[in-house]
Design brief:
The chain has four helices and ten strands, in the order H-E-E-E-E-E-E-E-E-E-E-H-H-H. By secondary structure, the chain is of the alpha+beta class.
């Protein structure tokens, strides 16, 4: 039989261990290392909301410009699964809203918004620059190119009977077979004047 003093010491040690483990779990966090993520050509990034899974970025665009939300968990460091209403951390079961808010723990820190930059017709996310959710990025060159691209696509639509999905015009979400069908039809235009016009209209810094 263990003495009463020995049993008390064991119980106290176990309590301290539990407190330490709970504290470590609660304080666990992850921050993305600084770097540039190439999201692709501007003409492919016209959606209102576009989850770029291989970059772990949820890209938004409105009439003020682009904004980029990280979709990598601030708790586990795992890439989040995009769902209609939430962003799910399958590693810890944490859940985040599409605006970065924590909906369910153990995560406690919201997802960060990152700055953006533009070069050579491409949009980049700077994970070393955290910004406010109200941040928007655009340039006159980008807006001019998009306006011209939409006009040209609309002309091609009328002339060739190609139906332009609303999501490509900056309206709606990136889903549905309509986009798949359009992608096949757009293949015929990929080497045409549309591409040349975009390359000329969007000038790198």
């Amino acid at each position: 039989m263990f003495s009463k003093r020995f049993r008390s010491a064991i119980a106290a040690s176990a309590m301290i261990l539990v407190v330490l483990l709970l504290g470590a779990c609660k304080s666990r966090s992850y921050s993305r290392p600084p770097g540039l993520l190439n999201l692709g050509e501007v003409k492919t990034l016209l959606f209102e909301k576009q989850h770029i899974a291989d970059k772990a970025i949820l890209l938004y665009r409105d009439d003020q410009g682009w904004s980029a939300l990280s979709t990598r968990s601030t708790y586990s460091g795992c890439d989040l699964t995009y769902q209609d209403q939430i962003l799910l951390d399958s590693c810890s079961d944490s859940r985040f809203a599409h605006d970065g808010r924590v909906l369910r723990g153990p995560a406690s820190r919201p997802l960060p918004w990152f700055g953006l930059m533009y070069k050579d017709n491409r949009l980049f996310v700077d994970t070393g620059e955290k910004v406010d959710a109200s941040y928007r990025f655009t340039t006159p060159e980008i807006e001019k190119a998009i306006k011209e691209l939409r006009r040209k696509l609309a002309e091609d639509d009328s002339a060739r009977g190609v139906k332009i999905p609303q999501i490509l015009l900056g309206e709606g979400d990136q889903s549905g077979s309509e986009l798949d069908q359009f992608a096949e039809e757009l293949d015929e235009l990929s080497g045409s004047e549309v591409t040349k016009m975009t390359d000329q209209a969007v000038k790198p810094y």
